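Need residues for this backbone.
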């Protein structure tokens, strides 16, 4: 790990990624992969072919503009929902673009914080239980750990506590930048 490190806010990492063109480059890769997605193309063509607009009697008498506007009104939302899902699949893919995004963000974070490696992420409840249950301590003895001991609930405050202390929370229940020094025990 580097000799000096500073606290880096997510906004700083995002700003750096925007400024150096990384966000634009990732956006272009996503667009290219969406354009190359044959399943999405086939699905969209099938939706157009089966559309009510084109299969309504008298559709052949409408202008191209009228048909286009009607098709857009009918199909825009379902097509964009499928495209959105495809984009999220790309972003969250741990073997492709998602991995590249994670590595890029990690590199920028490390550069901004002055560290060589990312600090370990806190374990999610139930994550790595198998690995932790079979951990070996320095004396060579097997450690039997209780999953409840590994639970991060001891480090998290209930939402009701956050509300009482004036902390802000987002809809998914995660606190935002709230720190009560009385909990540090120092």
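Answer:
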């Amino acid at each position: 790990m580097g000799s000096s490190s500073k606290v880096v806010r997510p906004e700083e990492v995002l700003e750096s990624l925007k400024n150096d063109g990384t966000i634009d480059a990732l956006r272009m890769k996503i667009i290219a992969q969406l354009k190359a997605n044959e399943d999405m193309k086939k699905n969209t063509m099938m939706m157009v072919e089966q559309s009510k607009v084109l299969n309504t009697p008298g559709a052949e008498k409408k202008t191209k503009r009228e048909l286009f506007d009607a098709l857009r009104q009918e199909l825009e939302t379902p097509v964009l929902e499928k495209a959105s899902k495809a984009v999220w699949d790309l972003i969250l893919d741990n073997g492709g673009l998602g991995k590249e995004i994670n590595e890029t963000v990690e590199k920028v974070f490390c550069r901004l914080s002055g560290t060589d490696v990312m600090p370990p992420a806190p374990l999610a409840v139930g994550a790595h239980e198998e690995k932790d249950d079979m951990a070996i301590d320095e004396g060579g003895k097997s450690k039997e750990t209780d999953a409840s001991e590994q639970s991060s609930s001891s480090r998290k405050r209930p939402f009701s506590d956050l509300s009482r202390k004036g902390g802000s929370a987002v809809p998914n229940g995660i606190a935002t930048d709230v720190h009560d020094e009385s909990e540090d025990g120092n």
